[in-house]
Write a structure and sequence with these properties.
The complex is a heterodimer of chains A (214) and B (628).
Chain A (H helix, E strand, L loop, with lengths): L2 E8 L8 H15 L15 E3 L8 E10 L6 H9 L6 E9 L6 H4 L2 E8 L10 H8 L5 E4 L2 E4 L4 E7 L5 E8 L8 H12 L9 E8 L1
Parallel strand pairs in A: 3-10
Antiparallel strand pairs in A: 1-3, 1-4, 2-3, 5-9, 5-10, 6-7, 8-9
Chain B lengths: L2 H9 L6 H4 L15 E7 L3 H4 L3 H12 L3 E7 L3 H10 L17 E5 L6 H10 L16 E5 L15 E3 L3 H18 L3 H9 L4 E2 L4 E5 L5 E6 L8 E2 L27 E4 L1 E2 L10 H4 L4 E2 L2 H15 L3 E5 L9 H12 L5 E3 L7 H10 L7 E6 L3 H6 L6 H13 L4 E8 L6 H21 L7 E8 L16 H14 L5 E5 L2 H11 L5 H10 L13 H10 L4 H5 L14 E2 L4 H12 L17 H5 L20
Parallel strand pairs in B: 1-2, 1-3, 3-4, 4-5, 9-19, 10-13, 13-14, 15-16, 16-17, 17-18
Antiparallel strand pairs in B: 5-6, 7-8, 11-12
Helix pairs in contact in B: 1-5, 4-7, 6-18, 7-8, 10-11, 12-14, 14-15, 15-16, 18-19
Classes of the chains: A alpha+beta (214), B alpha/beta (628).
Bound molecules: iron/sulfur cluster.
């Protein structure tokens, strides 16, 4: 069965939907578009979708890849056009490619993710000094409590960089992602602020995942 | 901080922000400034419940279809969201334009169950609208209206609502909007608006009525205070459902709703005449839709929404005269698109199980039947036209068809109930289980669940005069059943009698309850229909504070001659018919279903000048009002 890889963005109101909501939304959208999606066999057939990594509730995504199988070939640009005509607010498809048969699954090749995180000025008690990022990255270990266990997330932090913006604070992050090590951007930032002695609330981090890559 | 920023901040801090985010497929967002009439549809429960409601989809479609009007949605915020709103000083806002509730011209609440009343107060308060109609006379405040089943006894919330729509909203909503528009063009004051509204068929303006009480403190009379205000407000009912608007562009919820599927209303009204059932009265007469209309609406709805399932909704879908051909045709036309057809409720008979077999290819879930009472005697008293034989045939067919789990619904505390009737429930359940053992191969999977709820007397029903059983009595009965229903394969579920008690108080109450409801809300009562939030003690303290004895409302037996607090609301059914049918009930006599062609004369058709409509073209001749 022909397999297609598309990249979608999830912004605005749609970013508050969970991954499962998103799966349902994509399925219904494809039905509205009249695309011949393939279903699994068995008791409870579900569409043959596969994702690289679920996007957490509240996080925007700019280029989230996912694969879908169809019963018959459809031209790439036709898929994109038809789908974009019926996707709800905030969700858009940007680019569709045909995936060769032997291509490994998205999840198995995922290695890292890039994020942009913004924090409003009023949510920051102090400005983050440039040196704070360097200080933080020079640490050998960064211990974070997750599910009652201390974990060292430092090896998963590949890059943190301050971006020049209008107001507030904007940071670029590159973190390990996938089934082996998966670092949450809010954990990395929380540790950064703690290290700099700045008190922030994780809920104020406005997170956008800009890319997932191998 | 701008309101938008604050909203974003709040949404990042609640468990399910999708409940308030909007932007779903088929949601309509019109230009706020250039649209003349702005109405909010306010559902006093959480998003997932509200989005499962067909009435919302109908009114939303109807209003947004008008060029001069818009309708946006607002649901009761879950306690975590309420906390955020209050903490940040944010008003409750609509999903589409994120406008505070107070900015709308009209706010319309739907009244699906009494235990949502405190949520109405909470939403008004969070929406920065004064709670009481009397405090909203300034023109800057929205007009607050309400409709739905609980509007048939509107009195307990009469102080909070400016106008009630009694009956079906399809036609009334346009009258309401037109009248509002004319009023605004004239530049009149709020009182004049209320007077204009009271002249519309089916609209009840409580502030224009005066209630008098007798020396015992019971309602003596309810009279109109002004000319042009009807003594009895008769419900609105659509004559031909084939000809009215049907929402095929149903909003597809972004987060999973309780009923997350396309809805196809096949008919409205039920003819069976169960004597406890309010829906059976208020949605009369039965009006079936034609299969052609339905097939067309099904096709459009599925194409516009992308849902993979379509539910044939109505009070009793197996009664729809064309149900079998309709299902066959739907399956034929849509099976290639993997559309599942579902039936919400099954009549207790083999025919209905056959329908379920047709639509449900996988038999993993359970089948539910509602015999309601445990003995034939009591089933005759409540006019539930079901025999033990019907039930045994139905479950036999279900077990043979591959189902292994059966759910049986019963009511306890019904008028005239005795120990024998309770034993009857257990006996029936055991008989069903035994039949299952004979047929089902994997005995370990066999499951018979008995689910009991408590009888709540409702306005406009044959049992409206009946008292509710005391909570102790109901608890004792539940305890008895729990003991009787022990054993492998048997399961027992029940509703807390506390909630049913409050429901009885609120559904038969009068205006004086408004103070109690407000006091309960001030004490923190919210989401009373949710067992994790319901707290009877808080309610009792509220009743105490305002000097009302709730037991008087739940446990009172009314006399046929008593003025009932809802006598001025006309469901179309003749009160004399209800009284006669009540006497028949006490004598254990059944009353025929008018679908069979024989009209027992409930008086509704002549009084509303409407007729039952069956899709096959058969006719029922309603008898003229014999009881006048
Ligand atoms: S008047 Fe007769 S036909 Fe009409 S709803 Fe009542 S019982 Fe049925």
């Amino acid at each position: 069965m022909p397999r297609y890889r598309m990249f979608y963005s999830k912004k605005g109101p749609a970013r508050f939907n969970s991954h499962l909501d998103m799966v349902r939304t994509l399925e219904r959208s494809m039905r509205r578009a009249g695309l011949p999606i393939a279903y699994s066999e068995g008791f409870n057939p579900h569409p043959r979708f596969s994702f690289a990594a679920p996007l957490p509730v509240g996080v925007e995504g700019l280029a989230e890849p996912f694969d879908v199988e169809m019963l018959e070939p459809v031209e790439n640009n036709v898929i994109e056009e038809k789908l974009n005509a019926v996707l709800p607010d905030g969700i858009r498809v940007h680019g569709v490619a045909t995936v060769p048969d032997n291509e490994p699954s998205l999840m198995s090749v995922l290695d890292r993710a890039k994020y942009i995180v913004h924090i409003d000025e009023e949510d920051l008690p102090f400005e983050l000094p440039d040196s704070a990022v360097e200080d933080f990255l020079s640490l050998e270990h960064v211990e974070v409590l997750r599910k009652d266990k201390l974990r060292d997330i430092r090896p998963g932090i590949l890059k943190i960089q301050k971006v020049q913006g209008d107001s507030g604070l904007t940071l670029n992050l590159e973190l390990k992602a996938g089934s082996v090590i998966n670092i949450r951007p809010e954990d990395a930032l929380d540790a950064l602020f703690k290290n700099a002695g700045i008190e922030t609330d994780k809920e104020d981090f406005q997170i956008t995942r800009t890319a997932l890559s191998t | 901080m701008s309101m938008d920023k604050k909203i974003e901040k709040a949404l990042r801090r609640v468990q399910k922000p999708g409940r308030y985010a909007g932007g779903e497929w088929n949601a309509v967002r019109k230009d706020w400034v250039s649209t003349d009439l702005k109405m909010a549809f306010a559902f006093p429960d959480v998003y997932e419940v509200g989005m499962s409601h067909l009435g919302l989809q109908i009114l939303y479609g109807l209003v947004n279809r008008r060029d001069d009007a818009l309708m946006e949605r607002v649901f009761a915020p879950w306690p975590d969201m309420e906390e955020q709103l209050r903490k940040m000083g944010l008003p409750l806002f609509s999903l589409e334009s994120r406008r505070p509730l107070r900015d709308f011209d009209i706010v319309g609440f739907t009244l699906q169950y009494e235990l949502s009343f405190t949520n109405i107060l909470n939403m008004l308060d969070l929406g920065e609208i004064p709670l009481r109609s009397a405090d909203r006379l300034a023109e800057e405040y929205p007009l607050v209206v309400a409709g739905g089943p609980c509007a048939f006894n509107p009195e307990p919330i009469a102080a909070f609502i400016d106008a009630f729509v009694i009956g079906e909203g399809e036609e009334a909503i346009n009258d309401l909007l037109d009248t509002y528009h004319q009023w605004r063009m004239q530049g009149e004051n709020k009182k004049q608006l209320l007077l204009r509204l009271a002249e519309i068929d089916g609209i009840y303006v409580p502030s224009l009525y005066e209630v008098q009480y007798n020396e015992k403190g019971e309602v003596k009379s309810i009279t109109a205070k002004a000319g042009g205000v009807p003594a009895v407000v008769k419900k609105r009912a659509v004559d031909n459902l084939n000809a009215v608007f049907y929402p095929t562009r149903q909003i597809v919820p972004a987060i999973e709703a309780v009923h997350d599927r396309a809805m196809l209303e096949v008919q409205r009204g039920c003819t069976r005449g169960c004597r406890f059932c309010q829906a059976g009265v208020i949605y009369r007469p039965v009006r079936e839709k034609d299969p052609e209309t339905l097939l067309q609406q099904a096709r459009e709805t599925l194409a516009c929404t992308g849902w993979g399932e379509i539910s044939l909704t109505s009070l009793s879908t197996s009664d729809y005269s064309q149900v079998r051909p309709l299902i066959e045709e739907l399956t034929k036309r849509h099976s290639a698109d993997r559309i599942n057809v579902s039936l919400p409720s099954l009549r207790v008979d083999a025919f209905s199980v056959d329908l379920a077999k047709e639509v449900q290819k996988v038999r993993r879930s359970s089948l539910t039947f509602a015999p309601e009472a445990g003995t034939q005697r009591l089933r005759d008293v409540i006019n539930k036209g079901v025999t033990e034989n019907d039930l045994m045939e139905a479950v036999t067919s279900a077990f043979r068809g591959g189902w292994q789990a059966i759910k049986l619904y019963f009511m306890i505390g019904l008028p005239t109930e005795t120990g024998e009737d309770l034993e009857g429930i257990a006996k029936l359940a055991r008989r069903v289980l035994e039949r299952g053992r004979e047929i089902v191969k994997s005995k370990g999977r066999l499951k018979v669940t008995v689910s009991v709820s408590s009888f709540v007397p409702k306005s406009h029903t044959v049992f409206q005069w009946e008292p509710q059983d005391s909570m102790e009595e109901l608890r004792r009965k539940q305890e008895f059943l729990r003991r009787e229903l022990r054993g492998r394969g048997l399961f027992f579920n029940w509703h807390d009698p506390e909630g049913s008690f409050l429901e009885a108080v609120l559904s038969r109450g009068d205006r004086r309850l408004c103070d109690a409801i407000e006091a309960a809300w001030r004490k923190g009562c919210r989401f009373d229909g949710w067992s994790e939030f319901f707290n009877l003690d808080r309610w009792l303290a509220a009743f105490d504070e305002v000097g009302i004895d709730p037991e008087k409302y739940a446990y009172r037996r009314y006399d046929y001659n008593d003025t009932l607090p809802w006598d001025h609301i006309g469901a179309g059914v003749n009160k004399k018919f209800l009284a006669r049918d009540h006497r028949r009930a006490m004598a254990g006599e059944k009353t025929p279903d008018c679908r069979g062609g024989k009209c027992p004369g409930c008086g509704l058709c002549p009084s509303l000048e409407i007729k039952p409509r069956l899709a096959g073209g058969e006719t029922i001749a309603p008898v003229q009002d014999v009881l006048q």
